[in-house]
Amino acid sequence: MTVLQRMAGNAATTRALAADRGRTPRGTDPTVQRAENDDAGGGTAAGAAETKSVAEGEVKSVGPGGTITYPSVTSCLTITVYLRDGGKVGGHASLFKAAGGMYSDQILPAIKAQVGKSRVERIDVSGAISSWNPAYLKTAIENSSTVPEQKNDPEGIRAVVSSVLGRQAKKVSVQETPDGTLTR
What are the helix and strand counts (H, E) for the chain? Predict the structure, then answer.
């Protein structure tokens, strides 16, 4: 739901209540509630661009024009899904589970859930590509009986990302980036 739709809904509710004071059914709340998955877009005041920081083991989204920042990308992968409406969904996968975060094999399913049925423009995978085996995105190192060795396999990473997210491989770019903060 966009900010404008939410504002229009709130305004309509306010007008309806003001026109019929004292006739609000018992047990009702005049507040217009956000949709359960409303984190997939909007959420800022009109004209303000949303910025979110995505730490290791997290998945977050921003609405159209928003910015995602991935701090401390050293041995990590960042996956940013660019939606056709201008929004983004981003995940920060770490080789080892960060405190309070998700395992590496939980990041892509969480991204897929937040993207839902939104139309996808492209997907960017950036970070320490040479430190990752594509298998880490399917089974976290901590949960693997035999840990696959690290290898530089951008095509393998592209294949896993496109497969799990259900998107064409040609929409997925994979690039090694220097250590530091990434902004998308």
Answer: 3, 8
d(CA 104, CA 95) in angstroms, rounded, equals 7
For range 33-41, the mean pLDDT: 41
Alpha carbons 49 and 63: distance in angstroms, whole number: 8
Q: What is the pTM of this model?
A: 0.73
Alpha-carbon gap, residue 127 to 144, rounded angstroms: 22
Give residue 46's pLDDT: 55
Rg of the chain over CA atoms, in angstroms?
Answer: 20
- Bridge partners, 132 (sequence order): none
Give the 3-state secondary structure percentages of the chain, helix then strand then coil, rounded to 5. 30, 25, 45
Instruction: Give the pLDDT of residue 149.
Output: 86
Q: Comparing C-alpha atoms, which of 90, 62, 66, 63 is closest to residue 77?
A: 90
